[in-house]
TrEMBL record:
Protein name: CoA transferase
Any Pfam family hit: CoA_transf_3
Record carries keyword Repressor: no
Organism from which the protein derives: Mycobacterium lacus
Keyword annotations: Transferase
Lineage: Bacteria, Bacillati, Actinomycetota, Actinomycetes, Mycobacteriales
Superkingdom of origin: Bacteria
Length: 346
């Protein structure tokens, strides 16, 4: 059933561009919040990237046009803030301050407004360029990705922007739940360093410098990486001895019974596992190992993954998109297409 979403009754203003901010508010809109996208007169920049790109980040929203550099635009913003729960913005810190999009600037209109700022390095961290790939480079993500003898590599999607958008949505809701207005400050740099959790802890506490391993191998678990097979690549993730026993029996491998032994004898284990997996295809191994509860999957393309999971694809007007990943009992979002520029009166 559809019903009222869990965030019904919340009004959230967005002054967002491209990805991190719009993704955060789209997740909230899917869950029932009213999201009002405040755009400049020429429209938010991602409208120029392409219709499907814009739709993938802005469904279920309303749009109004304001010139926030003008007195009239600021007066209209004040009116909206007075009857909204939150404002989320992702711009350079100098622009956020100049356009008076902080809690300190807006609290006189609404003491309980929650202001969320998404920036590269923090609301007071300066205006250095902070696009997704730049952040992956500066936080060590790129240096950890790729083959040991190859160049650093970037994932094929915007991992920093998406991760920061989710953290910003969490921070926004946490502050609303507190019942008090205030500023929430979320930076791409801090989010990505946080996601290096166990790597960072190993370095900070044990001076263990992380480094790249072949096929993206895990630092602690063996075998846990990609493996070539007779046809295609298989992701195998053996995290405990029970998984190993099931896998080893199916692959007809003897020995290496404990996690500690497999870690110490990593090269030997990988050689034996690689030889065993070469006897069947990636799809074949997936079919054999899944019933045993062993974490394994053939590497698929995006098109193959979407064809295998048609239930995640939703219709938003004329657009086919991947739906919200947060499934709430008793509620099914009604996906609406992205708004036309400045088409809504609120």
């Amino acid at each position: 059933m559809t019903g009222r979403g869990p965030l019904a009754g919340l009004r959230i203003l967005e002054v967002g561009t491209m990805l991190a901010g719009p993704y955060a508010t789209m997740l909230l809109a899917d869950l029932g919040a009213q999201v009002v996208k405040i755009e400049p007169l020429g429209g938010e920049i991602s409208r120029g990237v392409g219709d499907s790109y814009f739709a993938s980040l802005n469904r279920n929203k309303l749009s109004i046009c304001l010139d926030l550099n003008s007195d009239a635009g600021q007066r209209r913003l004040a009116e909206l803030v007075a009857r909204s729960h939150a404002l989320l913005v992702n711009l350079k810190p100098s622009a956020i301050h100049r356009l008076r999009l902080t809690y300190e600037a807006l609290r006189r209109h609404n003491e309980r407004i929650v202001c969320v700022a998404i920036t590269g390095f923090g609301l007071h961290g300066g205006d250095d360029p902070a696009f997704d790939y730049v952040i992956q480079a500066t936080t060590g993500i790129a240096a950890l990705t790729g083959e040991p003898d190859g160049p650093p590599t970037l994932p094929g999607y915007s991992s920093a922007d998406n991760s920061t958008g989710m953290c910003a949505a969490l921070g926004l809701l946490a502050k609303i739940v507190s019942g008090e207005g205030g500023q929430v400050d979320v930076s791409l740099r801090d989010v990505m360093l946080s996601q290096l959790n166990y790597h960072a802890a190993a370095y900070l506490n044990d001076a263990v410098e992380p480094h790249r391993r072949p096929y993206g191998a895990h630092s602690y678990y063996v075998p846990a990486q990609l493996f070539p097979t007779a046809d295609g690549y298989l992701a195998l993730f053996i995290t405990h001895d029970g998984f190993w026993r099931s896998f080893a029996a199916e692959a007809r491998i003897d020995g290496f019974a404990t996690m500690a032994e497999r870690l110490v004898r990593r090269d030997e284990v990988l050689a034996v596992v690689t030889a065993a997996l070469a006897t069947d295809t990636a799809a074949g191994w997936e079919l054999r190992l899944r019933p045993l509860g062993v974490p394994a999957a053939a590497v698929r393309t995006l098109s193959e993954a979407l064809k295998a999971t048609p239930e995640v694809v939703v219709a938003a007007g004329d657009f086919r998109l991947v739906g919200n990943p947060i499934h709430v009992s008793g509620y099914q979002p009604e996906y609406r297409p992205p708004p036309g520029l400045g088409t809504d009166g609120v």
